[in-house]
Structures are given as C-alpha cells and as structure tokens.
Write a structure and sequence with these properties.
single chain, about 375 residues, alpha/beta, Rossmann fold, OB fold (Dihydrolipoamide Acetyltransferase, E2P), 2 domains, seven-stranded mixed β-sheet, 11 helices, 16 strands, about 30% helix, globular, binds S-adenosyl-L-homocysteine
Amino acid sequence: MEKKECVEKCPYVKKCGACHIGEKSYADELAEKKKWVVENIGKYCDRVNQVAGMYYPYHYRNKVHAVFGKRREEVIAGTYAKGTHNIIPVNDCLIEDTQASAIIQTVTELIKAFRLWIYNEDTGRGLMRHILVRKGASTKQIMVVLVTAQPEFPHKNQFVEKLKAHHPEITTIVQNINGKQTTMVLGDRNKTLYGPGYIEDVLLGLRFRISPGSFYQVNSEQTQVLYKKVVQAAGLTGTETVIDTYCGIGTIGMCMHAKAGRVIGIELNEQAVKDARANARRNNLDHICFIAADATEYMTRMSQNGGHADVIVMDPPRSGSTELFVKAAASLRPRSVIYVSCNPETLGRDLGWFAKEGYIACEAWPIDMFSFTEHIETCVLLSRQK
Ligand code: SAH
C-alpha cells in the first residue's frame, strides 16, 4: 500500500535517478542505512546506534538546483537523467522545497518570455545554464542564483523585477558567471542583482549567513539533530581548545563555542571563511577564529609547531580525510575526535588510520539527512587509548 502510494506520487522516479522514493518504506530504508554503516565501520566501532530518522521525510531539501535545456524547442528546467546528460523536466519533486520548485518554474517561463538563450553544453554557446534556489528553513529568506555563461544579461533589470513581482518571498537574487565547459554548477564570479547577496538561517539559536558558494547542510531540521549530538559527544567543560576542521561557514564550531575555552575553524573555501567570520561577529562570539587553509596542511603545521588541542571535530567531504591529517591530528593528542561523515566508506577507511594512531571509535550515531537517497550522515566519537 505504502509502496504503491509513493510510486504514484512521483512520476519521475524511474527516469530521474536522484532518489528511490517508493521503492521501499522509510523504516526499511533506515534499517538498510544502519546495516550499511555497520558494514563499513563495525570493524572499528561496536556501538552503532539506530539511525535517527526524519519526522517528515519529504520536501526537506533547502537547496534546489535545476539545469536549463531545450526539448523540441521548448525551454525546460530539470535534472539530468541517471548517468546521462539528458534533462528530465521536474517541477514538483517530493524531496525538494516546494517554494523553490515554484520559483524555478517561474524563471523557466521568464526565460521564454524574455527569449533568453539556453546554454548548449556541446557548443559552449548560449547564456542561461543553471538555477540554484536556497532557503533559510527558519528565517524563510530565499536566494535565487542564476548561473549564466557570460556576464551580459539582456533585460536584466526587467527580468529581476518580474521575478520579484511573482515571488515577493525572494530576498536576494545573484547572477553567477560560469563560462567554463565543466560539470561544476557555479563559477567564480557573483554579481548581486537584488538584496544582500546572501541569506541567513538560524540553527540552535545562532544566526548564519550563507553565500552562493558556501557549503550549508541541505536538511536544516536534521542538521540540528546532528550538531546537538556533536556538542553532547564532545562533553566540553568550558576550558577546552577545540579545532573545527572542514568547518564551512563555521556552524559546528559556533554551536560548541558556549561550552569551549576557544575554537579554531579551518576551511579551504575562502567565501565560506568570510561567511564564518561574519557569523562569529553577528552572534557576538569572541573566542573563535577562522583560518582559510587546507585542513591537512594546517594540522601538519600545527603538529610540527608542537601544538595541542583537547577536541578535534572533522567534517570532510565525501572523499574523506587524509592519512597525513589523521597522523597530525593524533600528534596534537586531543582527548576526543568527533568525526562527522557523509560517506560510511571513507569513514571506515579513516577510522582504520585513527586506530593505528591509538584512537578508538567508542560510539556512532547515524543521522538521516537525505531520505530516499543513498546517503547517510554519521557522527562518531573517538577517544585516545590510555
Ligand atoms: N562542517 C560544515 C561543512 C561540512 S562540508 C557544516 O556542517 O556545514 C565539508 C567542508 O569541507 C566544505 O565547506 C568544503 O569547502 C571543505 N573542504 C573541502 N576540502 C577541504 C580541505 N582540504 N581543507 C579544508 N576544508 C576543506
């Protein structure tokens, strides 16, 4: 019954491939995700908790992306079909924010009305490439990023006015210029067309500014479950030096700030570091600083300088961390490492490196941030062996 209902609800599921909604119940999915985590990290951690599932596993994605294309001369916006570059027009995705989906539809109509060129991947010609909509789940602020191949945007002002008139809920519109023939959505240049050029959101009582290129977790509700877990696992007493590595716009470190002696955030993306510094000022946090650096290089330097940390938080991308990072982190002799991972496979590999350095994974908490997809987030507490 449940399965049939879900399949009928999503007409794209077979072609799209972005999620597997309708193939199994959410409860079965959570059980499978737990199994997958245990398969990958069970060798190093014998306390893997049940997956913390979502209360309402639909429309949770606060970041929605669509690529523009043409089908029989019609402008379409959608997602690439699994494993191909064929675009499937999707306009009411069950896991994406509904307001964002509506804005993407309007922008598609405006592109038609203004007769703007759609970018052609094969020839590299044309203007409109992608649209990205981000929403602050708590503030309801909405950012629209229009990705174009060139800086010139015909009828730009009228386009922006029409879009605002249709969607007064939009709080900022940014043009991002990406002239490269690449699979990356965003280019390096942003031009703010309306509003401040970023949105804000509130997590655990703290306010965060999010720029177009900065990483921000896509599921705000479950992010708070995750961050609470990290803070709890750290067991801070108010005196500790905490290093928050791969820190993005500084969210985890700032959630730990109230209970820490001082916090250092390390992040490679300079736009994210700017956001992080602005966020610290915005929240009046004074014993936190952010450094734009490669996490492995920073930790290695700190280790060579005889540095020390009490708690290290790490939240690397899907590819995981590096063996050099793990060695350097261990040499700072933290009492605990809290590893936040979005990929159980690289997590398992990295826990193996930590085990060699005398750090044991005591407990793991998988948290589902991405229902109906193959992804699962896991928070692991590691302690130094006596
Ligand atoms: N902890 C943050 C961000 C996690 S995403 C949050 O919860 O929102 C991973 C972050 O690692 C991204 O911001 C990415 O820009 C950053 N990153 C990727 N490679 C890195 C590296 N080699 N050194 C430092 N940061 C890196």
